[in-house]
Amino acid sequence: MSHQTSNSQLHNKSAGWSALFSEPMSELVKRYTASVFFDKRLALFDIAGSLAHAQMLSEQGIVSNQDFSDIQRGLEQIKSEIQAGTFEWQLDLEDVHLNIEARLTSLVGMAGKRLHTGRSRNDQVATDIRLWLRAQIDDIIVALSNLRTGLLDVAEREAATILPGFTHLQVAQPITFGHHLLAYVNMFARDAERMVDTRKRVNRLPLGAAALAGTTYPIKRERVAELLGFDEVCTNSLDAVSDRDFAIEFCAAASLIMMHISRLSEELVNWMSPRVGFIDLADRFCTGSSIMPQKKNPDVPELARGKTGRVYGDLMSLLTLMKGQPLAYNKDNQEDKEPLFDAVDTVLETLLIFTEMVQGITVKPENMRAAALQGFATATDLADYLVKKGLPFRDAHEAVAHAVKICTHKKCDLADLNLAELRAATDLSAEQQTLIEADVSHCLTLEGSVAARNHVGGTAPEQVRAEIAKWRSQ
Ligand code: ARG
Q1: What is the pLDDT of residue 2?
Q2: Which residues of the chain have pLDDT under 50?
């Protein structure tokens, strides 16, 4: 290769990497090792990182002001080309970094060749991913907040709507639909907390670690961190280029989001089943069947339940990617991007569609009520009533079990027994039976049951409204 390498030959692997190589890279290897088709997604963050690096180099006198201004001009043009879709991505140039650098050199000449002073693609790519992921995390935090707002709107509307609460998928106690939805508001709030926390460890600057050991130039890493909005710099160069904990942590937090989405999906599917009939989802979120004209299927929640597996898979990919890697950078790391991109895309799209979908939930209160009236949902309330009249809880529990058994035989509800029948059904002593008085009927109603759970975290409509107000003020 001649001493005067032309700009277009820079990093061109058809021509070979450098004078060291005696033959060009095999086509197969070129395709196998290239990442440009997916990592071009990092382009604008790569440019931002390069601009900050170049500015620091010029401030430190490592490159001239003229070089910096040429680099700036060139990178701005490349940015416009990328945004306009006219930038020509070349497989020969392997990845986003080499594509942009080669174009820069073809645009501005020598200054372009100076950009890579004091850095390596190893610290460059780690910086790019962190910048990119930070922006995605910010979007996810907003998307989680929007979803919570959507859920709060429905919860407010249905603060006093009663349905059965289940344990073991058996009717347990009456609850309010607003309260049920607030459970998900809590989950998605914790998810946002985890994103905020993960962001702290994402927001550290690897640049300056260079290939692995640092660099011999008088760089100023804190300045680059400041220019790029990083909270701090990564303090060990080997760790800086090889650490992907932040991506794993992100995927773990993303997996929890999807797990919550999947639980909600399972409930939506179940509630919409004609056998349950608690809700309807707006038609625009459902699909029909190609053969059965009567069908309206909740495809969106089902698909979200399925996509949860993808995100768990992304987490497993990254954990496995890292487990056998010695320090410092290894090419394995190039495999970090697609799972990470996939996790972000899946979570963001899912949150967006769920935010719209939950607002299209219409409830069928009469079906919820009918279901809550089956299965002796107020049995615990009767036991609590007896306890308040002085019976020990275990005895009260036993007495109510007797009454439930009688009702099961009679095929009726506790509330259907008159006072004398109810007293007798408890199998309590004659004296203890007198503890049950006419006021018992209130605690056996669904409304009485939910209203009685009137403490922080309880299902009473009053508490639900107070919780909603608290969430909204946050
Ligand atoms: N495309 C590479 C990646 O994604 C960039 C870093 C390449 N570094 C190297 N030494 N081969 O990780």
Answers
A1: 37
A2: 1-8
**Ligand 1 mutation pick, 42, 334, 335, 337, max ligand atoms within 8 A of CB:** 334
pTM listed for this prediction: 0.94
Check whether residue 363 and residue 274 sit in a common domain.
Answer: yes
Compute φ and ψ for 4, nearest 5 degrees.
Answer: -85, 80
- Separation of CA 220 and ligand 1 centre (Å): 23
DSSP assignments along 133-180, one per residue: HHHHHHHHHHHHHHHHHHHHHHHHHTTT-EEEEEETTEEEEEEEHHHH
Distance 155 CA to ligand 1 centre (A): 48
- Closest ligand 1 atom to 121 CA: 6
Would you state the pLDDT for residue 15?
Answer: 61
The reported pLDDT for the residue numbered 293 is 81
CA of residue 330 to ligand 1 center, whole Å? 8
Count of C-beta atoms within a 10 Å radius of residue 38: 15
Residues with CB under 6 A from ligand 1: 35, 39, 95, 121-122, 125, 329, 331, 333-334
The whole domain housing 13 covers 7-117
- Do residues 195 and 237 both lie within one domain? yes
Same domain, 291 and 327: yes
Please give the positions annotated as active site. Answer: 168, 289
Map residue 255 onto helix, strand or coil. Answer: helix
